[in-house]
Amino acid sequence: MHAFDVLGDPVRRRIVELLADGELSAGEVTAVVRREFGISQPGVSAHLRVLRENGFARVRADGARRLYAVEPALLQDVDRWLERFRGTWDRHLDALATELARGQRERRRRGSTPPEDHLPENHPPEEEP
82-111, pLDDT tens digit by residue? Predict the structure, then answer.
């Protein structure tokens, strides 16, 4: 199975995200996935099996518990594949950063502050003493 076939499923992507923060028991993974996706324990087990069999997760026994962790090797392969596309979005993000900096410099140069009618709703204008 291709990496993107495995990670194309939102439940499996979420499980990988959970495991990226550290080792979790099957029960902990199931609790989160059940709450977020409404999937049963056997359904979560099936997703964990797909991740394990395709090299995205590893499992170890700790007594009766099964502890899962992300297996970074295939994710590094995905990252290397994505590398050739980074230039596309990096240029756009760099251009956005330049425009934001230009706008901040312009506001500082003019010494202007945002008009009161543009303040967020939870920040009413200050009253004068």
Answer: 888 777 776 777 777 788 888 888 888 888
